[in-house]
Amino acid sequence: MAALAESWSWFTALAVGVSLFKCLFINAYHSTDFEVHRNWLAITYSLPLSRWYHENSSEWTLDYPPLFAWLERGLAQAARRWDGDMLRLDNLNYASPATVLFQRLSVVCTDLLFIYAARECCRCVRVQKAPQDVLSRPSFVLAVLLLWNFGLLIVDHIHFQYNGFLFGFLLLSVARHLQSRHLQGALLFAVLLNLKHIFLYVAPAYGIFLLRSYCFTLDRPDGSIRWSSFAPLRLLALGGIVVSIFALSFGPFVAMGQLSQVVSRLFPFRRGLCHAYWAPNAWALYSGADKALAALGVRLKLLQGAELPRAAMTGGLVQEVQHAVLPSVPPAATLLCTLPALVSIWCRRRGNRAFLRCLLLCALASFLFGWHVHEKAILLAVLPLSILAVESREDARIFLVLATTGHYSLFPLLFTPAEMIIKVCLMLMFTIYSFTALGNLHRSQGSLLRPMEVAYLLGLVAVAISCEFVFPLSPWRQKLPFLPLLVTSVYCALGVSYSFLRLYATLLRSDDKHKQL
Amino acid sequence: MQTWSLVSISVLLAVLVRWGVSLNSYSGAGNPPMFGDYEAQRHWQEVTYNLPLQQWYFNTSDNDLNYWGLDYPPLTAYHSWLCAYVANILNPDWVELHRSRGYESPAHKLFMRITVLVTDVLIYIPAVVLYCLYLTDGSAKRRVSILLSILLYPGLILIDYGHFQYNGVSLGFALWGVLALGLGWNSLGSLAFSLALNYKQMELYHALPFFCYLLGKCIKAGLIGRGFILLVKITATVLVTFGLCWLPFLPDPSQVLQVVRRIFPVARGLFEDKVANTWCSLNTVIKIRSILTSDSQLYLSLAFTLLAALPSSIKLLMKPTFWNFKLALVNTSLAFFLFSYQVHEKSILLAALPVCLLLNEFPLMCIWFLQASTFSMLPLFLKDGLLVPYTVAFLGFPFLTVYLLSALDDCSEDELKLGTCGKLFSFLPKMHLACIMKWKFYVSMALMAVLSVVSVAMDPPPHLPDLFPVLMSTTAFMHFLGVFLNFNIVQFMDPPRKKSRKKNN
């Protein structure tokens, strides 16, 4: 208790440090996402509610749920005092210094929610005995892994997005569930769903867990469901919360009869299987195999080179794809792959950490097999895994492989020369820290990683050097400009798939342990 | 956690902060016809690459000395030549004679910023790391905290990576000199410091302590015997280094003379612009520049400088310990800054480096001084468009360093080593003295913050157009004077406490 009573000054130092650090990159490169959000500021400020989801004078139409649109509107009220010109709809690609400063600072400020959520997660960390040295405490390590996460810093504060704010909701909801405050957790998740609908991928984990562990209050001796202990009041409370949040968010649009328009904006299904830059998921492996087999087929004279669709998947733009050799994958198949993980938490009451594990598996499964996945979605798995990594040795191993691979796969997002130093140094910093800190935490049982994993990660370094430095100076630069992206995605996909399988194994093995008890 | 990982993380963080600052504007950006220090450096690359060595310091048809003529010693010129050699490979337009004047492009800016980073990583940062690991007392955590605090000193970062200069090279060499002397390698130390002197003549601010320390060591070892041999070795090292650096110029005495004339321009006035030193601050009440002739100004400043610098140097000569050496470095460089002739605000960096070396023993006083030094350069940063990095530094540096070094916890009278002076305050309980120190610190920070905000947000009254720079430089001057007096007292009090601290380790 003495440790708890001691001030959390180190947390304040970390939080203030990282916030000021983020301010240093205000003038760094920002992607088209910057213009996207500026456009949304303009839409929500200048147009009435009825036109928000119909407006398409710019290519960056509003495709987030209504609560996020309201957030943009709130920001626009503040933006008015900085530079009113950014709120004009026709001001496409407007990026005055005041606009850049305002938008960047808005990300830093909304990150305060993420900082609060990180603190709540640090409070949840189970500790056997708190070491004297602050640096060796699990809560300190978790704070650094969350606050100084490489992926978040790169994607939010350079590439430009509001993921910190969104993941703040997610982590806060997870923290509430870990503290057994389920209603608050459900409320936060409902709000999150209405901020960015990509979190629908993990909604099954929430749904099954809350239904099983919150609505059924008692179990049979062997842990399976006792149907008689169903608590309808709890179900009503949960339902009430979810319905009211959705009503708040979608209500106005239903009233105006625009629900179908909003849904069509939120779920555009015409895009291709892989995003412009291949996310390192199973489809990357599939498409990579397809390309390889096609090339092999042409070489072996089994296929006619002229018949193959030319550069179909590597053309950097978002489009529907045709596979050359392997059958083209229909959309429905992607959904099936997400199901298996949910069954295990339904069958037995597994506790709050099992819920977190299942959430992770849903997130990772959706990343690996999902429709139109962006590589930024790996953060959905890396951040919650940090909580498990500081508590359990096995999870720490998986975290090291997943985080390093996932973070490296974000490299193609920052392709400008000035940002090269930033991404390399920041990646090194985070990787060195995560390896040494987690190794230190779990050092009682020998080294953390197996030789195969070490070899894979060293291979990652080789891939990094050849893609970033060797390839641009080689003669293939003109003929195969997307080769480094292909190699990066395929290599990282191996790591991500491996982590997924290991996580599944952990879940099932603890399931077995539970059975034996 | 292992020291190597903490050190590498600190170094990477330092590099990231530097690079973040370098994304901003530089001195004279988009400002013809003269631009600023950035264009000066680019111009020196152009001159040294395209013209033969004999013409570098002379006014010829190809080399107009009025447009950023070379006014640093030869090592800077060689460095510029090296950068120009690489620049020419990447894009000859960057250093083409005459035509590249005022050349500005994102790619060129990237190149120039990388040259600064490379020299920092090769020279300055390793020196700081080795200093913190080998010449700092305390636990591994304490050493890494000191390392991080020194590496994140904003003044140097904002000047080198914002305004654009290569102070990291000269300060780095000087630090290598201090490091070598601390480890007992006298010849290497003299070599390193001679290189520093040959890079920037402003390192003369540090010359007196180096000289007195080494001479004192020789005298102590006995002028007949080992001491004499040491003296000969050091003299030889210095002469050989100077000889090698000036080798291309030596055959022709007029060359040497011209270089000297360029690096020591005595035709300018007592001070330029608003500087936080005595003369500029005095000028607000008594207009010295108009009262005295320029010759008497020169003699006045010389006299006062020597008067201020000599006591500490003589003390060092008589008792040549490393501790005295570090204190003398601070005192002498501050004396020069406060009283010397034609001082620029950037010269405070020469005092800041030795102060950084005292962070372990006097955390609060040093952080205070370092913050004031960054604050004193605000007018320069505003001119260069570096407001955002300045704000980040102004808020972040004291917060982080005070936390890392627990500076506010330890400021009892003992820590301040006021010694005899402290006995004057002995009627006050220790707690009160610590409280007074803390509140002085807070008030001072608040004052600097208010002045910063006011000078950015408000316009000065029309009849006092220089109000804000004058207020800022006078405030900074008071801080510098206070620190100068404090460290002089410390040097003369000879604190016994340092030995007791060693016992505790």
Automatic annotation (TrEMBL), chain B:
It catalyses: an alpha-D-Man-(1->2)-alpha-D-Man-(1->2)-alpha-D-Man-(1->3)-[alpha-D-Man-(1->2)-alpha-D-Man-(1->3)-[alpha-D-Man-(1->2)-alpha-D-Man-(1->6)]-alpha-D-Man-(1->6)]-beta-D-Man-(1->4)-beta-D-GlcNAc-(1->4)-alpha-D-GlcNAc-diphospho-di-trans,poly-cis-dolichol + a di-trans,poly-cis-dolichyl beta-D-glucosyl phosphate = an alpha-D-Glc-(1->3)-alpha-D-Man-(1->2)-alpha-D-Man-(1->2)-alpha-D-Man-(1->3)-[alpha-D-Man-(1->2)-alpha-D-Man-(1->3)-[alpha-D-Man-(1->2)-alpha-D-Man-(1->6)]-alpha-D-Man-(1->6)]-beta-D-Man-(1->4)-beta-D-GlcNAc-(1->4)-alpha-D-GlcNAc-diphospho-di-trans,poly-cis-dolichol + a di-trans,poly-cis-dolichyl phosphate + H(+). It comes from the Eukaryota. It is a multi-pass membrane protein. Its EC number is 2.4.1.-. It holds the Pfam family Alg6_Alg8. Residues 1-22 form the signal peptide. The chain crosses the membrane at residues 110-134, 146-164, 176-197, 230-250, 323-341, 348-370, 390-408, 439-458, 470-493. It is found in: Endoplasmic reticulum membrane. Keywords: Endoplasmic reticulum, Glycosyltransferase, Membrane, Signal, Transferase, Transmembrane, Transmembrane helix. Pathway: Protein modification; protein glycosylation. One of its GO terms (molecular function) is dolichyl pyrophosphate Man9GlcNAc2 alpha-1,3-glucosyltransferase activity. GO terms for cellular component: endoplasmic reticulum membrane. Dolichyl pyrophosphate Man9GlcNAc2 alpha-1,3-glucosyltransferase that operates in the biosynthetic pathway of dolichol-linked oligosaccharides, the glycan precursors employed in protein asparagine (N)-glycosylation. The assembly of dolichol-linked oligosaccharides begins on the cytosolic side of the endoplasmic reticulum membrane and finishes in its lumen. The sequential addition of sugars to dolichol pyrophosphate produces dolichol-linked oligosaccharides containing fourteen sugars, including two GlcNAcs, nine mannoses and three glucoses. Belongs to the ALG6/ALG8 glucosyltransferase family. This is Alpha-1,3-glucosyltransferase. It comes from Xiphophorus maculatus (Southern platyfish).
